[in-house]
Specification:
Strand content: under 5%
Number of helices: 10
Oligomer: single chain
């Protein structure tokens, strides 16, 4: 029931924002693939939560000896704001690495291409992700934070922030934040990551653009937005076909 309530709240909030401040006025609310993304929104939460819990439990059983109580106490003794800043940077650095690998390693791309298959972006497009990829990302980002011993409050704030940010980034809104573009990933920043323009491919991987600046993958042309989204290869349109696609496709 909480997923239904969350969906309705987001649908109402971002529906109003995308209606009042649309980036592409011609884009329909019930765009192509909308129902598929609704399925991703609901089914992925279930599959990913179960999968992440099982994998995390196994990792804890086998590697709990690697936990350093003294290090965790030192991390937890820091001010909350410093903990969040550290956790956010570590998590985004890990996410950047995993995300960039997903674009450069062919068999990983077969999973990640599902997310990039949307030819039109809105808030719901953020839900189009293969659940196995989401599990890998959750584990890759969560394990370092767990081992370092950040508090539950820090974890909780980061989880809320990391859940809201992608929804905003994919929205069909024309909001621009010139200063924030180099601090926090904004719609203007992330839309270029989904662009099918040749110059924009494999850019803007992080939720913390400074990391992209450091590694030379920052790309936000001044006063421009992407002309096209999506990928060149043909991706199936239904949810269950997209789940199976990585195991069938051999393209990149």
């Amino acid at each position: 029931m909480k997923f239904v309530i969350a969906f309705l709240v987001l649908w109402l909030l971002f529906g109003i924002l995308e209606w009042l401040y649309p980036l592409r006025k011609e884009q329909k609310h019930f765009r192509q693939g909308w129902l598929t993304d609704v399925a991703h929104f609901f089914f992925n939460h279930i599959l990913v939560n179960i999968g992440t819990y099982l994998v995390a439990t196994l990792l804890y059983i086998f590697f709990r000896g690697a936990i350093s109580p003294s290090l965790q106490i030192a991390v937890r003794s820091q001010p909350d704001i410093l903990q969040f800043a550290e956790a956010f940077f570590i998590a985004q650095l890990t996410f950047y690495a995993v995300h960039r690998f997903a674009h450069s390693v062919p068999w990983l791309w077969r999973f990640h291409v599902i997310h990039h298959s949307s030819a039109e972006l809105d808030w719901l497009a953020s839900a189009r992700l293969h659940p196995l990829e989401m599990i890998v990302v959750n584990i890759a980002v969560g394990v370092p934070l767990f081992l370092l011993g950040f508090t539950r409050e820090t974890f909780g704030i980061y989880l809320v922030f990391s859940a809201i940010l992608p929804i905003l980034n994919h929205s069909n809104t024309k909001f621009q934040f010139p200063i924030l573009n180099r601090i926090i990933a904004t719609p203007e920043f992330h839309h270029w990551h989904h662009s099918n323009d040749l110059a924009a491919r494999d850019k803007n991987f992080s939720g913390f653009p400074i990391i992209d600046l450091l590694f030379g993958t920052y790309y936000v042309p001044k006063n421009q937005m992407p002309a096209t989204y999506g990928v060149d290869e043909i991706i199936p349109q239904t949810y269950w076909q997209q789940l199976l696609y990585p195991f069938q496709s051999q393209h990149r």
